[in-house]
Write a structure and sequence with these properties.
- It comes from Azospirillum picis.
- It holds the Pfam family FAD_binding_2.
- With 469 residues, the chain is an alpha/beta fold.
- 34% of the residues lie in helices and 23% in strands.
- It has two domains: 312 residues, FAD/NAD(P)-binding domain (3-Layer(bba) Sandwich); 145 residues, Succinate dehydrogenase/fumarate reductase flavoprotein, catalytic domain (Flavocytochrome C3, Chain A, domain 1), CATH 3.90.700.10.
- Strand 13 and strand 14 form a beta hairpin.
Length: 469
């Protein structure tokens, strides 16, 4: 239903200076930014309540050089962050695109805190793979649900119109110039709304099985842990309007979704010294490389299942996350006083699991590196009581998308901006390159918040320029 229709002769019920498609973090931040610049804004959300993939995440946003880092004694800078992003993706992302979001995200978080009261703090008690500084910021519950709830509250308090159950099924355009949108309501009725500028904040194509099969075939049959509304509308509209695209095979997977509970289990369970074993009780990879690339690795195990094994010390760190507390409450986290007892609960061979954990202890004690390349130097030994969660690999969201410039304007194949089209979050090409291994923790919300603010500001600025001419 991602159609482009000719705008000639179409009568719009009304026209809004800035229309934002999508009510996740990118859309809400874009709406706040455009409203602050004096533009009339309408957010269109297909669901009954704006949530998006943001609500399914841990709600953590990486940002360098913030006041929260300084208060915690953490040294960081946009340049250091950008270097980490590019290193994780092995040089694939456009350095200018990386610098753009690395420089914008810290000020965006402080703006959200100061203007709209979002109580961010920095996660200072563990590190994520690939980050050379502790720069993950979140709200008190460390949940994406709280992040989107607070952003929605800020939008409502600002008096910005949000139209829910409003599925945008077509754009009206004169050539590359977007004139308006077609909205399909739950009863099948249609509405046509004109716009001066359009911000695409409707994420990527993770919920479109055909597009995933085409661009990310290794995860074609994986559990999809993103929002079902992510059908690739922004990508398809953009391509139809002549937009350039990049890194369409890029994506964020996750190798630790509790199964069958369907709850995200924080990767702190690994980075703090936990390991993953398969149904035989054997380790099968360097788990510490990153949770995104681990998704496909887990799915290659028997029945696509693994067990994340850790201990009470690590569980104490993990409990700062609402998702982990929910997993414990649901009984997804097994507890035992010995590897043999734990193996019994897991229904795997106790001898193999005991030998596996003993070898991990030996490597930790010696500060050694295993055959998979994982360095255990400085990692604490696991101690009873032990914990284990049955997990699978999942696709969270795609990272490729429409190419944008420093103002989040969508560019065509020649590098020229389309007249009034902007993209943020998963609708835009991210900074993870073309592979799952290029995803640095937090890259999704990084582009949602940073590009969301840039896109909203620029879209409102275009409308001001037009009114002044």
């Amino acid at each position: 239903m991602s159609r482009i229709l000719p705008a000639g002769g179409v009568e719009f019920e009304f026209t809004v200076p800035v229309v934002v498609i999508g009510g996740g973090a990118a859309g809400m931040v874009a709406a706040l930014a455009a409203h602050e610049r004096g533009a009339g804004v309408l957010v269109l959300e297909r669901d009954a309540l704006p949530q998006g993939s943001t609500a399914l995440s841990a709600g953590l946003i990486p940002a360098p050089g913030t006041r929260w880092q300084r208060a915690a004694g953490i040294e960081d800078s946009p340049q250091r962050f950008a270097a980490d992003v590019i290193a994780k993706a092995k040089g694939e992302p456009d350095p200018a695109a990386v610098a753009r979001v690395a420089q914008a995200v810290g000020p965006a978080l402080e703006w959200l805190a100061d203007r709209y009261g979002l109580p961010f703090s920095v996660v200072d008690n563990f590190s994520y793979p690939g980050h050379s500084a502790r720069r993950m910021h979140g709200l008190p519950s460390r949940s994406g649900a709280e992040l989107i709830d607070r952003l929605r509250g800020a939008v409502e308090a600002a008096g910005i119109d949000v139209l829910c159950e409003a599925h945008v099924t077509a754009l009206y355009a004169d050539g590359p110039l977007v004139r308006g949108v077609e909205i399909t309501r739950p009863d099948g009725s249609l509405e046509r709304v004109g716009c001066g500028a359009l911000v695409l904040a409707c994420n990527g194509y993770g919920g479109n099985r055909a597009l995933v099969r085409h661009h990310v075939p290794e995860l074609a049959e994986a559990l999809y842990f993103g929002h079902p509304g992510n059908q690739g509308d922004a990508l398809l509209w953009g391509e139809a309007l002549g937009a350039a695209t990049r890194h369409l095979s890029g994506h964020q997977g996750h190798g630790s979704v509790a199964h069958p509970a369907g709850i995200l289990v924080t990767w702190a369970t690994i980075t703090e010294g936990g390991v993953q074993v398969n149904a035989e009780g054997r380790r099968f990879s360097n788990e510490a490389q990153g949770y995104s690339e681990q998704a496909a690795v887990v799915l290659r195990q028997p029945d696509g299942i693994a067990w994340t094994v850790f201990d009470e010390r690590i569980a104490g760190i993990a409990r700062q996350f609402e998702d982990f507390r929910q997993a414990e409450a649901m009984g997804a986290v097994l507890t035992a006083d010995s590897p043999v007892e734990l193996a019994g609960l897991m229904k795997i061979d106790p001898g193999i699991l005991s030998a596996t954990l003993a070898e991990v202890d030996r490597l930790k004690a010696a500060g050694g590196t295993d055959g998979f390349g994982r360095d255990f130097a400085g990692s604490a030994l696991l101690a009873p009581p032990y914990r284990a969660v049955r997990v699978t690999g999942a696709l969270f969201h795609t990272q490729g998308g429409l190419v944008v410039d420093d103002a989040a304007r969508v560019l065509d194949a020649r590098g020229a901006p389309l007249p009034n089209l902007y993209a943020a979050g998963g609708a835009a090409c991210g900074v993870s390159g073309a592979k799952a291994s290029g995803y640095l923790s937090g890259n999704g919300l990084l582009t949602a918040v940073a590009l969301g603010r840039i896109a909203g500001t620029a879209a409102a600025g275009v409308m001001k320029e037009e009114r002044s001419q």
